[in-house]
Amino acid sequence: MFGKILIANRGEIACRVIRTARKLGVRTVAVYSDADARALHVEMADEAVHIGPSPVGESYLRADKIIAAALATGAEAIHPGYGFLSENPDFVDQVTGAGLVFIGPSAASIRAMGLKDAAKRLMEKAGVPVVPGYHGEAQEIVLLASKAREIGYPVLIKARAGGGGKGMRRVDHPDDFSEALSGARREAKAAFGDDRVLVEKYVDKPRHIEVQVFGDNFGNAVHLYERDCSAQRRHQKVIEEAPAPGMTPALRKAMAEAAVKAAKAINYSGAGTIEFIVDASEGLKADRFWFMEMNTRLQVEHPVTEMVTGIDLVEWQLRVASGEKLPKTQGEIALAGHAFEARIYAEDASKGFLPATGTLHHLQFPDAPPQGAAMRIETGVRAGDAISPFYDPMIAKLVVHAKDRTMALGALHDALARTEVAGSTVNTAFLATLAADADFAAGDVDTGLIGRHQDALVAVAAPSDEAIAAAALAATDAGAPGRAADPWSLLAGYAHFHTLARRVRLRFGEENILARVSARPDGRFQVVLEAPHDAINSHDLRTLPRTARWPGHVTVFEGAVGYTFAVPDPLAKADEAAAASGSLRAPMPGLVKLVRAAMGDPVIKGQPLLILEAMKMEHTIAAPHDGVIAEIATEGAQVSDGTVLVRFEEEGQG
């Protein structure tokens, strides 16, 4: 076993690797950028090396700096985690060329599976079923459009390099092919440096089911059963589970055999995942699945496989890379119970899942698993950490395991309801609503489920008057430790013959709320709300809903929903200019990738004006109303959240 390894990654996966390494007595070296100088993975590692500025191109993608850090600290091997350089064969060559061990597959294996088109041709030769489509080298638009017609609409345009939904477009009609192709190519180029694509048949009711495989350097390869990752938004996974609901013995056997066959075809060593698309329109059948791609690394969702098999996949990675054989044979790997993983992101589900930033002023996960279940929290952040625009906005992975799917789903509900995040917009309410969706609960899930039910899934009920009253009470610092014992200390001043009330102003969205809070001799508080809200007679501190007070705000938690109220500073002057309706602001930090209008152009509501790139994804910014453009952002400009992108001429102007 290695004595010391370097982890060429950040966040939760770096922390995950460190925990297993520590268990095995292996010392760890972390690397970090400027933005991550005080990150959790840096604190957890035995040593840490600074490798550059915050942008990934100047830090986590700098192979030379990472290898130099490994050599300088005496590390024997490099664990790539996932993302960044984990599937870069040139990086593997550089690592091995420096006399270090890459904890993962060989460069040749990565190259064989790195490009979707070449991988599918290879799988066809190996006898693994592949989805109908065009996987050739030619990239002329006329040829690609012709192939799309041959395949039959709808089709899916996919970047041949990379994954995660980047560079992917569904096209339903030939007239839309050119525009979709351009967008997919731009996004693929930005994310992977390769704008080549392939075109495939779009399956009407697709299930995304993948098989975890593992190989060693002695020709052995096994599978660790399947995961279902069909619950996706924007082609990115949201909730994963193992095993796949409704899986039949015949399909499991066929998929597992195909996955192991694929791994052996490229002499695979280490952890890998074979992703299949399954046509579920007539149920799960052994002849209705096709190879999509192979991820030649550890997957984000690997914990659900660990939960149902009892196997530490990172430990296996370290053992295999250090020269050991696979710890278990196929017959020794058993499947037990059911597991779910929910990805908690800083994102706004109601705005098309736009990534969010902010400081995690309050972060609290369940302190114990739900009854009858096991739970683990995989995170790389703590309360007080910032969600940076430079990296993926994942906050944590919440993983639960129970004896069957029904109990595991109940445990997921419970754990989400006890998760509290304040300081950034998060998707916990969306996750809880998805987990409660009738189709999802029944196991009738496909990759289009979220899109079909999106309006209902992202809708959040308005806060109750009880929640508003709790926010008003929290705004007086009533929730502070020790306050319940001395309620009078909460309120300034004293009145001999009547209760002194404190006026509290709140803002929720566009609504201004006024409340009066007064202390009572019995230790309770009376909160009265002005119309249109009902009066709440009193609140007992012992039953006060969960709240978090942070600079200028109060968040009240009701189940998995966090209602955030602004607490205006009465001395602050309103910024009227910022609230003007004649401008369009950036919904998130990003790069102005493409501008489609110019100063003086008349535009109509819904017309695309520019494309903003954030987190390597493209977001179209459209006109909110008819008007004439007075000013528009410059192509290539880097903007922050709230930056004015477009100003419209006022009526009568010009």
TrEMBL record:
Residues 1-455 form the Biotin carboxylation domain. Residues 573-649 form the Lipoyl-binding domain. Keywords: ATP-binding, Biotin, Ligase, Nucleotide-binding. Residues 120-322 form the ATP-grasp domain. Its cofactor is biotin. PANTHER family: CARBOXYLASE:PYRUVATE/ACETYL-COA/PROPIONYL-COA CARBOXYLASE, METHYLCROTONOYL-COA CARBOXYLASE SUBUNIT ALPHA, MITOCHONDRIAL-RELATED. This is Acetyl/propionyl/methylcrotonyl-CoA carboxylase subunit alpha. It comes from Mesorhizobium captivum.
